């Protein structure tokens, strides 16, 4: 029989060990909690947390997830407000609770060693850590699933009322959290007859079990009745091969990394090998009926839910068919870690050294996944500074337009005020601009326009901004890298107040400092604590009154060495409020990583520290040798950028297909500005939809915005991949691929030079043939 009751001293040691594991789990999950940007789904959760309870229920009934997580997040938001750290923190707690619960699950099946090993593997799991740092419900579902599995084992062992309550609560809770967890009660009910028969068909156990299922179903039924007629029926699924599915599933369980699966295959196979050996040992060991049921339940928990995930991720139209995503595997991972710990605990009884080596191997695999998780993490200033500026200046009579609304949840996470979105995906012409803007314009004293990177794709002619500019008395502009902010004043009074802060805005005032005779600096604001090379620090200064002389802003290392300096003119003085001034500090790729001070000096006055930040250097890219580039080129774009060549593996494509292209860039010196790359597919036939000869396009900053031109290290070769979608109605024929760069702020193309002579503002690559089968 597996497992034994520990003595008093062993029990004390066991409690100390699980406490240590819980502390480690908490540390790994809290570390860097706010050091990554809010993404689309997290922004949606942040937005939902601000809704009323009735609105949350109504919205989730029309969404693909039930409401429990959002209701709990709403309650937490009422206590702590907005913020990445604050709203992610409940997921941290649930992740740590899951470690404690998997310990109880493993211990109830295989004794203390099985529980401790299972808890150790979950503690170090990159998969679990990553989702314990997200504003999403998946770690909650995994923890509730662990509770339910533990309760099943306890019910099969002792049939006590506490386990009954935990089971009912956990099953109902997980169904109210994530529909996919329906696999947990299904799996439990598949193994229950086996346990019940092996225990001699006790009537009391059967009665409690049936009642537990009925009560759990009754607790979930009201929501199901309300939501079922409203659940969406669209599909975003894409076909994937069974082999890829299994490869992804196994890699996520073992290593926790969803990309470059082939690189992690040896480690994944090693962890799976340990699992198989452990399963063999478990199957050969003596077991109680409850342990047999638990073993079958965990194995089914690995297989059956995965099969369900694969089926619903196929492009079939049954309610909502989602695209395959690794996060759906998280609740299943509990079975994997528990089986690993239990199997190794059984091996330890006969071959302790083999079990120890296998445990070390599993730990090494887990640590290999963690090795790339924390280094170099720093949030990008996507909407932080923009939203702060909008809050600082927006007056009660102003309106806000988001152009476009593709990433509206991310914007909404940073800005809680009302706004109107320009629909993403629809082309904008003059009539469209008038229809969207005219009602808002007539009702407001002025309009704020937030221009996102996708605006150019929907509105290449700039019809939205042109409509506002043609009617505004005056306007202002702020630039924040890939996004811009504009204000257009409609009334004379609002034009007069153009530089005044909002009446209800309270500047972040520190100790007032007189930096020059009669010039007082009220405070300064550095939006983020950590930046990466290539980013821009948008420093905000608050004056009362502002200086009339130029202002020098220096970036200094901890030892006082000046590494960069920006000299700016005096700001325009606000009429009836403190004056807010924005100073942009570009962190070029040649700056060393470390802690920095920002020092300000007005004229010949004293130097004053106004802020601090930490600079994280970007990890170097994989080495690319010139001989590795299939098609070599030698074009210079602007002063410091070279296009070394490209890779175009497929030159024949069907309408609706994808042209895969990789460009290879190199910087001769640090690049001081951010540029976007354009990749255009030009046909010989006029495209009435786009109003030109363009039949495919992808414009973005290099490497999908991950490696900005300001981050390039001189001499390093940047491999920049693209997937250009060909229009479904593209006629057969030969198409030209043109590439180049243009300024992120001004949109002006960089000149293309050969031997120092400008030859064009684009580079033509090998043509592509579009054919119809």
Descriptive account of the structure:
With 773 residues, the protein is of the alpha+beta class. The protein has four domains: 8-370, no CATH class; 384-496; 513-616, Macroglobulin (MG2) domain (Immunoglobulin-like); 626-770, Immunoglobulin-like (Sandwich). It is built from 22 helices and 26 strands. The strands form five sheets. Strands 21-18-16-15-23-24 form a six-stranded antiparallel beta sheet, with no helix packed on it. β15 and β16 (641-647) form a beta hairpin. α8 runs antiparallel to α9, α13 packs across α15 and α19 packs across α21 (463-471). The longest helix is centred in the N-terminal third of the chain and has 27 residues, at 84-110. It is globular and about 90 Å long. It starts with 7 loop residues before the first helix and ends with a strand.
Task: Provide a quick synopsis of the model.
The chain has four domains: about 10-370, no CATH class; about 385-495; about 515-615, Immunoglobulin-like (Sandwich); about 625-770, Immunoglobulin-like, CATH 2.60.40.2550.
Q: Tell me the helix content.
A: 40-55%
Instruction: Evaluate the radius of gyration.
Output: 30 Å
Total strands: the figure is: 26
Coarse structural class: alpha+beta
Mean pLDDT: 92
Number of domains: 4
Envelope shape: globular
Amino-to-carboxy terminus distance: 65 Å
Q: What characterizes the major β-sheet?
A: 6 strands, antiparallel
Per DSSP, what share of the residues sits in E-state strands of 2 or more residues? Answer: 15-25%
Order of strands, main sheet, comes to 21-18-16-15-23-24
Number of helices: 22
């Amino acid at each position: 029989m597996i497992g034994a009751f520990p003595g008093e001293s062993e029990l004390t040691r066991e409690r100390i060990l699980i406490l240590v594991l819980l502390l480690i789990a908490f540390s790994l999950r809290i570390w860097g909690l706010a050091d990554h940007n809010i993404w689309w789904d997290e922004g949606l959760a942040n937005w939902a947390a601000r809704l009323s309870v009735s609105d949350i229920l109504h919205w989730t009934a029309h969404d693909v997830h039930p409401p429990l997580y959002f209701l709990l997040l709403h309650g937490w938001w009422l206590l702590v407000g907005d913020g990445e750290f604050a709203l992610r923190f409940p997921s941290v707690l649930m992740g740590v609770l899951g470690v404690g619960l998997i310990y109880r699950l493993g211990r109830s099946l295989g004794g203390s060693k099985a529980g401790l090993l299972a808890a150790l593997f979950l503690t170090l799991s990159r998969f679990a850590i990553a989702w314990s740092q997200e504003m999403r419900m998946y770690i909650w579902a995994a923890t509730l699933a662990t509770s339910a599995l533990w309760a099943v084992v306890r019910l099969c062992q002792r049939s006590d009322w506490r386990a009954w309550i935990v089971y009912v609560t956990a099953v109902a809770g997980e169904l109210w959290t994530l529909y996919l967890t329906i696999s947990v009660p299904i799996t439990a009910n598949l193994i229950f007859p086996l346990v019940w028969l092996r225990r001699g068909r006790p009537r009391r156990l059967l009665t409690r079990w049936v009642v537990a299922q009925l009560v759990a179903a009754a607790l979930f039924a009201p929501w199901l009745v309300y939501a079922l007629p409203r659940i969406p029926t669209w599909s975003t699924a894409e076909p994937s091969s069974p082999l890829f599915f299994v490869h992804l599933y196994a890699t996520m369980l073992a290593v926790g990394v969803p990309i470059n699966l082939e690189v992690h295959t040896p480690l994944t196979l090693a962890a799976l090998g340990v699992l198989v050996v452990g399963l063999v040992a478990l199957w050969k060991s003596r077991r109680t009926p409850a342990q047999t049921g638990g073993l079958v339940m965990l194995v089914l928990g690995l297989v059956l839910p995965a099969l369900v995930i694969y089926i619903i991720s196929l492009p079939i139209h049954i309610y909502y068919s989602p695209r395959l995503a690794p996060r759906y595997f998280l609740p299943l991972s509990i079975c994997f870690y528990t089986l690993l710990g239990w199997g190794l605990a059984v091996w330890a009884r006969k071959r302790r050294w083999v079990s120890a080596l296998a445990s070390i191997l599993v730990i090494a695999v887990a640590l290999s996944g963690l090795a790339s998780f924390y280094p170099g993490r720093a949030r990008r200033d996507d909407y932080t500074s923009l939203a702060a500026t909008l809050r600082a200046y927006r007056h009660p009579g102003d309106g806000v337009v988001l152009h476009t609304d593709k990433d509206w949840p991310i914007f909404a996470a940073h800005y809680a005020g009302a706004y109107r979105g320009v629909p993403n995906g629809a082309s904008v012409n003059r009539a469209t601009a008038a229809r969207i803007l005219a009602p808002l314009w007539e009702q407001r004293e002025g309009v704020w326009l937030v221009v996102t990177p996708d605006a150019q794709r929907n509105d290449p002619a700039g019809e939205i901004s042109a409509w506002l500019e043609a009617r505004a008395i005056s306007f202002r502009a702020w630039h924040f890298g890939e996004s811009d902010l504009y204000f257009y004043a409609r009334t004379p009074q609002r034009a007069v107040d153009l530089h005044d802060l909002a009446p209800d805005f309270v500047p972040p005032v520190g100790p007032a400092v007189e930096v020059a005779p009669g010039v007082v600096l009220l405070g300064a604001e550095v939006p983020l604590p950590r930046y990466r090379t290539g980013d821009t620090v948008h420093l905000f200064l608050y004056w009362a009154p502002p200086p009339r002389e130029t202002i020098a802003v220096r970036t200094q290392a901890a030892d006082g060495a000046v590494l960069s300096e920006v000299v700016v003119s005096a700001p325009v003085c606000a009429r009836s409020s403190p004056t807010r001034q924005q100073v942009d500090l570009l962190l070029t790729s040649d700056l060393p990583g470390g802690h920095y001070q920002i020092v300000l000096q007005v004229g010949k006055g004293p130097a004053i520290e106004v802020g601090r930040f930490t600079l994280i250097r970007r990890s170097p890219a994989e080495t690319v040798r010139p001989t590795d580039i299939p098609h070599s080129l030698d074009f210079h774009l602007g002063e410091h950028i070279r296009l070394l060549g490209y890779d175009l593996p497929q030159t024949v494509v069907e309408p609706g297909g994808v042209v895969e292209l990789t460009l290879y860039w190199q910087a001769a010196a640090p690049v001081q500005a951010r540029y976007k790359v354009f990749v255009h597919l030009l046909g010989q036939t006029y495209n009435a939809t786009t109003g030109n000869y363009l039949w495919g396009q992808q414009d973005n900053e290099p490497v999908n915005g991950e490696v900005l031109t300001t981050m390039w290290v001189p001499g390093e070769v940047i491999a920049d991949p693209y997937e250009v979608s060909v229009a479904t109605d593209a006629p057969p024929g030969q198409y030209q691929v043109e590439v180049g760069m243009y300024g992120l702020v001004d949109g002006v193309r960089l000149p293309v030079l050969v031997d120092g002579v400008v030859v064009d503002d684009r580079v033509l690559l090998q043509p592509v043939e579009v054919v119809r089968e």
